[in-house]
Amino acid sequence: MPRQINLKYFRQAVVGKFVQKVFHKKPYRRIFIFFSLFILFLAVAFFAFNLIYQERILPHTYVGEYNFGGLKKSEAKSLLSEIIQRSQGAQLNYSWENNSYSATLADFKVDYSSGQDQTIDNLLAVGRQGSLAKVVKENFKSIFSRNNLLADFDFDEGKVNDYLLKIAKDIDQDEKDATIEIKDNYPAVVAEKIGQKFDVVGGRAIVLQSLGSFSFPSSLPFEVNKLLPKISSQIAQQALAETESLLSRQLTLKAADKTFQLYPKDIAPMIEFVASLGQQNPLMSNSARKIVNAYSLSPEISSAKVSDLIRQIASEVYQEPKDPKFQVSSGRVVAFQLAQTGYELDQAKATTEIIEALEKDKKVLEL
């Protein structure tokens, strides 16, 4: 009968033999002892470090460029009050091209005193509150780097938004695609225009960072992003040949025994330029994708503008149907009117046919 093996006992035995085998080797034993001592050293150092700075802010703890490290609560509060007092006449400045934008702390209704106690509590909490990882990280930064905090304060958010939106109103410009303009039946490329947009959301963060760190530079580092158009002059240039071909065409329209001529001067107002996203080979490398233009520009006959022409033609060729009429007097026909066949142009169909005729360079079209 097969014997049953206790897996728990088996694992303990195997692990025990492995540990015993490892610790019989001096290099492994030394490594274990080294790491054990190192961890013990860190624990003792951490305890001693916090004991030294008990009831004091940990070293290298800053609000902006002001170092509060090593200060007791009363000392930190005194320093913060002094900083707040010196900042009373401060203002935020921003320059863009020839325009300057300034706002004082009073304009934003900034009140540091309301958050003074909270700021001190935040400074004392560095390296002492939060998760273990956060506490360890902040303690290491207190020794080898620095912890940066922002002062707590109240302000009028609406005033800050108004300040930023005023800047945005002056800076923001929409981008414009390059296109083709037709004058006297001659097409020419109109260059693109690069736009720009002020980053309001990022600007708000910069304003709060400046106020919370008591930092008031000569010009705030706001970001203005460039808006690149989809269609460049180079892309528009590629549509010139097709545009010139459309402008060289002439079409004769026939409807209800009437003839209408479309000359280049009539076709020119019907042309509109449409930007479309081109398809790229999915196997193409990323570097090649950057070289190939994603958008293209093409001249197309506008159905709306052709419809305007069709409505004019339809009104000219419309013919109301009439029945024959007889007028009899004394048994004799004294007046006679022939029947008249009605005619009404199918405008939707005619619009489609004219566009196709122009695209295929037909000379005559029966409507």
Describe the structure in your own words:
- It contains 13 helices and 16 strands.
- With 367 residues, it is of the alpha+beta class.
- α6 (157-171) packs across α7 (200-212) and α12 (303-317) crosses α13.
- The longest helix has 27 residues, at 26-52.
- It is elongated and about 130 Å long.
Number of strands: 16
Shape: elongated
State Rg. Answer: 42 Å
- Mean pLDDT, as a whole number? 84
Low-confidence residue ranges: none
Tally of individual helices: 13
Q: Characterize the largest beta sheet: strand count, sense, and whether it forms a barrel.
A: 3 strands, mixed
Task: Specify the helix fraction band.
Answer: 40-55%
Task: Spell out the helices and strands N to C.
Answer: HHEEHEEHHEHEEEHEHHEEHEHEHEEHE
- From the N-terminal CA to the C-terminal CA, the straight-line distance is 101 Å
Q: Report the β-strand fraction as a percent range.
A: 15-25%
| Helix-and-strand structural type | alpha+beta
Describe the strand arrangement of the main beta sheet, using strand numbers.
2-1-5
Topology:
Layout: H1 7-23, H2 26-52, E1 61-63, E2 66-67, H3 73-86, E3 91-96, E4 99-104, H4 116-125, H5 132-144, E5 147-149, H6 157-171, E6 179-183, E7 186-190, E8 195-198, H7 200-212, E9 224-227, H8 233-237, H9 240-247, E10 251-255, E11 258-262, H10 264-267, E12 271-277, H11 286-291, E13 295-301, H12 303-317, E14 325-329, E15 332-337, H13 347-359, E16 364-366
Parallel strand pairs: 1-5, 10-16
Antiparallel strand pairs: 1-2, 3-4, 6-7, 8-9, 10-11, 12-13, 14-15
